[in-house]
Amino acid sequence: MSSHRLFRFPKPQWLNSANTRTAGVYTAGALFSLGFYMFIDAATYSKSALNGSDPAVHITFVDWIPAICSALGMLVINSIDKSRLSADSFSYSGNGVAWKARLVLFLGFALMAGGLAGAVTVLVLKYVVPEYVFPTLWMGVANVIANALIMLSSVVLWVSQNMEDEYTYNLAL
Amino acid sequence: MAGLKTIIALSFVLAIGFLLVILSSALWHNFYPLLVVATYVIAPLPNWICGRASNSDDFMESSGNGVLDFGRFLTGFFVVMGIALPALLAHCAIIETSAMVMSIIGGLLIYGTIISFTMFFQEEQEF
């Protein structure tokens, strides 16, 4: 296995242990929670007494759409069995399973990237162009931060689940 | 060997944690910080349930690991929720800042008690 390496530096040993994988999954949950509550904070702030924007600006359904897209994308990406992505190289799985898996994965990544882009769009069109100042601007900024954190959480979950595959693979051989 | 002293110390810490959380709600007649207690009581549950749901006998079977990971994900979610929820309430001026600090410290004490309790008494079951 070590002769098939591509890069000059080997992967550090701690990256393959089961503990790192467990910590990665916990970290992913923590990051998702942080992002989720960042957005809920903006929504609560919009309804609280602190929201003193003169023409009243509130979180409406438009602000929710990017977060919903990101969460759906995360669900799609992480519900795919990772071993199916390279399934065509094995002889026993026919019918283009890998092709379907890659298509669904592409949809998931598109949803997630669309969520982040949508958050930036909402920030620019709803909060920056009408030139709101900071307490109001926070509602847009929190939306972007929340979507970025959900994306980061998904990345961490993906990496740690791939780590698990290699771990069991090392154990099997 | 976790003895009687450990149980007494843990129960003291648990009582202090509950005292802090209840004080943070009752001092301002605003009972939102009690949600922290509910969060931290729920937090270890997904790990236990999903640990039972996935059969650990055949770990080469990759189907059981997804359930386990989902439980861990939910646990991480709930642990951060216990800190983020008082911060959210304080940022939106629903509770006072000092109530936020008290409820976060109390919640962490309660969760630490639950975790160390399971850690101390899990090892005895294996023998």
Automatic annotation (TrEMBL), chain A:
<feature type="transmembrane region" description="Helical">
    <location>
        <begin position="60"/>
        <end position="80"/>
    </location>
</feature>
<dbReference type="InterPro" id="IPR007919">
    <property type="entry name" value="UPF0220"/>
</dbReference>
<keyword id="KW-0472">Membrane</keyword>
<protein>
    <submittedName>
        <fullName>UPF0220-domain-containing protein</fullName>
    </submittedName>
</protein>
<comment type="similarity">
    <text>Belongs to the UPF0220 family.</text>
</comment>
<feature type="transmembrane region" description="Helical">
    <location>
        <begin position="21"/>
        <end position="40"/>
    </location>
</feature>
<dbReference type="Pfam" id="PF05255">
    <property type="entry name" value="UPF0220"/>
</dbReference>
<keyword id="KW-1133">Transmembrane helix</keyword>
<feature type="transmembrane region" description="Helical">
    <location>
        <begin position="137"/>
        <end position="159"/>
    </location>
</feature>
<keyword id="KW-0812">Transmembrane</keyword>
<dbReference type="GO" id="GO:0016020">
    <property type="term" value="C:membrane"/>
</dbReference>
<feature type="transmembrane region" description="Helical">
    <location>
        <begin position="101"/>
        <end position="125"/>
    </location>
</feature>
UniProtKB/TrEMBL annotation, chain B:
<keyword id="KW-0812">Transmembrane</keyword>
<keyword id="KW-0472">Membrane</keyword>
<feature type="transmembrane region" description="Helical">
    <location>
        <begin position="7"/>
        <end position="25"/>
    </location>
</feature>
<feature type="transmembrane region" description="Helical">
    <location>
        <begin position="70"/>
        <end position="89"/>
    </location>
</feature>
<feature type="transmembrane region" description="Helical">
    <location>
        <begin position="101"/>
        <end position="121"/>
    </location>
</feature>
<dbReference type="InterPro" id="IPR007262">
    <property type="entry name" value="Vps55/LEPROT"/>
</dbReference>
<protein>
    <submittedName>
        <fullName>Vacuolar protein sorting 55</fullName>
    </submittedName>
</protein>
<dbReference type="Pfam" id="PF04133">
    <property type="entry name" value="Vps55"/>
</dbReference>
<keyword id="KW-1133">Transmembrane helix</keyword>
<comment type="similarity">
    <text>Belongs to the OB-RGRP/VPS55 family.</text>
</comment>
<dbReference type="GO" id="GO:0034424">
    <property type="term" value="C:Vps55/Vps68 complex"/>
</dbReference>
<dbReference type="GO" id="GO:0032511">
    <property type="term" value="P:late endosome to vacuole transport via multivesicular body sorting pathway"/>
</dbReference>
